[in-house]
Specification:
Radius of gyration: 44 Å
Structural class: alpha/beta
Shape: extended
Oligomer: single chain
Number of strands: 20
Strand content: 15-25%
Number of helices: 23
Helix content: 40-55%
């Protein structure tokens, strides 16, 4: 995409320090740290914040797919990534020559891309958005074949790269073999003369030389190339090897020229594919960048939220990623944030005591929006819903300007002027302590006017304040709502939880009292405050205290409900045992033809257990359960064979009832053929039916039932 096209699609921020104040650069540094190469890091540096729905959606889905790929343990081929920008520049210059190392880097880049293409042959369906990166490209095997023909595994030009090179290297091999023979004979001769130094031989100026004692250097023919620092050793090229060395030197130069010619020809052949190789590098850099975003998302527990085209913010259990990482390192808990800004409620005014988390809330919403529109998954519940904004304005912190001789308040007003002039319905703004820096009464008035204007143009935003008039205004002006940071007045500690729908108290006097200021000074200060203001702040604090009590009581009730549910589960379990006992007892009645005293005793005990269960206290029902289990074991011993086997042998009759046609429905009278009993149908579950027989609930096969009068 051309630069101007990208510029038009970028999120407009104001002032130019916005992203720095939101610590977005730290997020980019984290992602760069997960990159496997400089290719991915370059992508991090050129990443931009888009305002195009389709583009952002594609980025998010690609990151989400790679995150899924990583979490399932699927291998993705990104083992070899190297920056070949210099090589690509050389390939664009006529007659430029790439070295053996550079050509091998080009080859490995092509092989890395080939692995990526092969991956998507098998994973095309699961990762469609990742595959789209390579959809418009193809793998050209000719590039690797050309390089392999010339360069071997040791990054050296092959002998067979050309006939001339093969001939030269053949001659070189012969000359070097001949030189070795002659050189060894000379060494033997000098050893016999006992003038060889300890080193024997070395290389100087590219020539093989013999190390001899310096005082003997005039006795020998040859060329002196060097002497040791002590002057005791001289390095001489023997006269017998001078011509051979000259021949080898000439052949080596010829070899160098031929290697250069071969590399130049290979570079020219490869340059035809320069644009394609450049695409390959871009593909690899994209995947490195995406995998880094996915790795960071896994690290901070980020998710893929619901993306909407129109402006909206609906964050569930969101948190600031930098704060979360810091707290995790120090073992602290990070309180999640839930906030919803829509067309009906576009602006949130957050109030509450200092150090209660108001600014963190503001920064969290702003940073996550920037991350989202950069194609990053965000640390929030996947049910979160975020729209797209075209502008993001921020006014936070001390904005004094020495250069322009502006005070903090003047600088704030300059920023607010820009907000008012350029904000629209696709603008997201954030102001920390709106109207601060001047007389509270006047500053509060200006803050109210500014907020009214931003509400009129339907901008979205989050504002923090201590001003009473803004808290009251939020309940009256359409599109603006109150929010408060929870505070424990008893402990005078912030809870860092945002509660939307009501303003918060600043707890000024409570904090002053806890800090140790004299009671007389606090009371004197109260007399200087407008009574309505004091009363309003007091009511806000009382509301928070009452809400906390209600919340605590609700938690107690919830715990009791859980305990009751556990008791219900135990009741259900015991009822199941009693039903089992009843089934077994009736089966035993059929088997024993109702003549056994044991059967009568079992029936009597069953009736007793049922009555006990209904009358016993919760603490005593465990005894009933134990007794039930005892009778189940007794009946199982008395009736070892399944009732079905015995029942099949019997042909029960029903002289006193008549069959009727109709549907088996709860409440109907039914005849149980296997048990020769009549009961009331309670319910049907699949192929089974529950029948009430006196005080018992029996489970029988549905096929065994017939409707009777």
């Amino acid at each position: 995409m051309q630069f101007w096209g990208i510029l038009q699609q970028m999120l407009r921020t104001y002032p130019n320090t916005t992203l720095d104040k939101l610590e977005f650069e730290k997020i980019k540094e984290q992602i760069a740290g997960h990159c496997k190469s400089s290719l991915g890091k370059k992508q991090v540096q050129v990443m931009y914040i888009s305002t195009e729905y389709i583009e952002i959606k594609k980025w998010l889905e690609q990151t989400h797919e790679f995150k899924s790929l990583t979490q399932t343990g699927t291998y993705f081929p990104l083992d070899y990534l190297v920056d070949i920008d210099k090589e690509l520049q050389l390939l664009g210059i006529m007659n430029a020559v790439l070295s053996e190392d550079q050509l091998v880097d080009v080859k490995k880049t092509c092989l890395a891309v080939r692995s990526v293409f092969n991956f998507f042959k098998h994973e095309e369906v699961l990762y469609p958005n990742l595959r789209s990166i390579v959809a418009d490209s193809y793998y050209e095997k000719k590039i690797v074949e050309l390089i392999d023909t010339v360069i071997d595994e040791d990054k050296l030009v092959r002998d067979r790269a050309s006939k001339e090179l093969a001939q030269i290297r053949g001659d070189l091999s012969k000359k070097r073999t001949e030189l070795n023979k002659v050189f060894n004979k000379v060494i033997q001769k000098y050893q016999q003369a006992k003038i060889i130094a300890d080193v024997e031989q070395s290389v100087r100026n590219g020539r093989r030389v013999i190390a001899i004692q310096a005082e003997s250097k005039r006795q020998l023919g040859g060329i002196i190339h060097d002497e040791s620092d002590s002057g005791k050793t001289a390095y001489i090229e023997p006269a017998e090897t001078i011509q051979l060395n000259n021949d080898i030197f000439d052949l080596e130069r010829a070899e160098g020229r031929e290697v250069y010619r071969v590399l130049r020809q290979l570079s020219a052949d490869i340059s035809v594919y320069r644009e394609l190789i450049s695409v390959y590098q871009h593909i690899l850099s994209q995947f490195d960048f995406i995998q880094a975003k996915a790795a960071f998302a896994v690290r901070i527990g980020a998710s893929y939220p619901v993306l909407k085209e129109s402006p909206e913010i609906k964050l569930r259990n969101a948190y600031h990623p930098i704060l979360w990482m810091r707290n995790k390192q120090s073992g602290k808990e990070t309180i999640p944030l839930t906030i919803h800004l829509n067309q009906e409620k576009r602006i949130l005014v957050i109030s509450g005591p200092n150090a209660g988390g108001k600014t963190i809330c503001l920064k969290t919403v702003a940073l996550l929006q920037v991350m989202l529109q950069s194609g990053m998954l965000i640390p929030a519940d996947e049910r979160s819903e975020l729209g797209i904004f075209s502008q993001l304005y921020l006014d936070i912190g001390d904005a004094q300007s020495i250069e322009y001789e502006l005070s903090t308040y003047s600088s704030h007003l300059q920023t607010m002027k820009h907000f008012i002039e350029f904000a629209d319905s696709k603008t997201l703004f954030f102001v920390d302590e709106l109207g601060s820096g001047t007389d509270p009464a006047l500053g509060g008035a200006f803050a109210e006017v500014i907020l009214e204007r931003l509400a009129e143009v339907k901008s979205f935003g989050v504002v923090t304040t201590h001003y009473l008039n803004l808290k009251i205004m939020a309940n009256k002006v359409k599109g603006i709502m109150n929010g408060a940071m929870s505070f424990d007045e008893e402990k005078l500690l912030p809870l860092y939880q945002l509660v939307v729908g009501k303003p918060g108290s600043s707890y000024t006097f409570s904090i002053a009292k806890r800090s140790g200021l004299p009671e007389s000074m606090i009371n004197r200060a109260k007399t200087l405050v407008d009574i309505d203001h004091l009363r309003y702040d007091y009511l806000l604090s009382m509301v928070e205290i009452l809400e906390k009590k209600v919340k605590d009581e609700a938690e107690v009730i919830l715990q009791k409900e859980k305990e009751i549910q556990v008791g219900k589960d135990e009741v259900s379990d015991l009822k199941g045992k009693l039903l089992k006992l009843g089934d077994q007892m009736h089966a035993l009645q059929i088997n024993k033809k109702n003549t056994s005293p044991f059967v009568k005793e079992a029936e009597r005990q069953l009736q007793k257990l049922l009555r006990d269960w209904q009358t016993k206290k919760e603490s005593e029902k465990e005894v009933v359960a134990e007794q039930t289990q005892v009778w189940i074991e007794k009946i199982e011993k008395a009736n070892p064979q399944p009732a079905k086997t015995k029942a099949k042998e019997a042909t029960p009759q029903m002289p006193q009832y008549e069959y009727i046609e109709g549907e088996l429905l709860p409440g109907k009278r039914v005849y149980i053929r296997k048990m020769d009993k009549v009961g009331i149908l309670d319910s049907i579950k699949g192929s089974k039916a529950i029948v009430m027989l006196d005080l018992l609930k029996l489970t029988v096969a549905k096929d065994e039932l017939r409707l009777v009068k």
